[in-house]
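Item description
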Amino acid sequence: MAAARELKISRTTQTSSVCPYCAVGCSVVIHTLGDKARNVQPTVVHIEGDPDSPINRGTLCSKGISLKEFVVNERRLTKPLYRAPGSAEWKAISWDEAIDKAARRIKDTRDRTFQEKDGQGRTVNRTASIAMIGGCTDTNEINYLLSKFRFGLGIISYENQSRL
């Protein structure tokens, strides 16, 4: 008789969380391997639906079931990349530099294209030259802040992929 295999989750730390995708609020259990020592980097080894959840009762949709691949992926970008105009090469830059570049471009575009009044003289305070897209992993709190940011700048073009 073959020896029984140990389950991959048998020595893991279990953490309850909520799937970030569509705002239904499905509960997930994240299984992490590695202790809390400073020299150990914990690794997510498995994510599953929480069977005790009254919302999803342990099931996950096709987006939720792929959550581990979203978290643990060797191709996932972990730092900003920048490609200068006309260049074919991407280079890693700091977060401070990336935020400064984005802020400068947003400000310059808004200043150049801001429309205070429409053709009939009505106050509109908008720019049609900047668009925003929301992601399916954005939380309600992030979407709230993004909407305040968008309305504050006068951005009228907005789309999100939560219904996909």
User: Anything to note?
Assistant: The chain has three domains: 13-71, 77-111, 114-164. The longest strand covers residues 123-134. The radius of gyration is 22 Å.
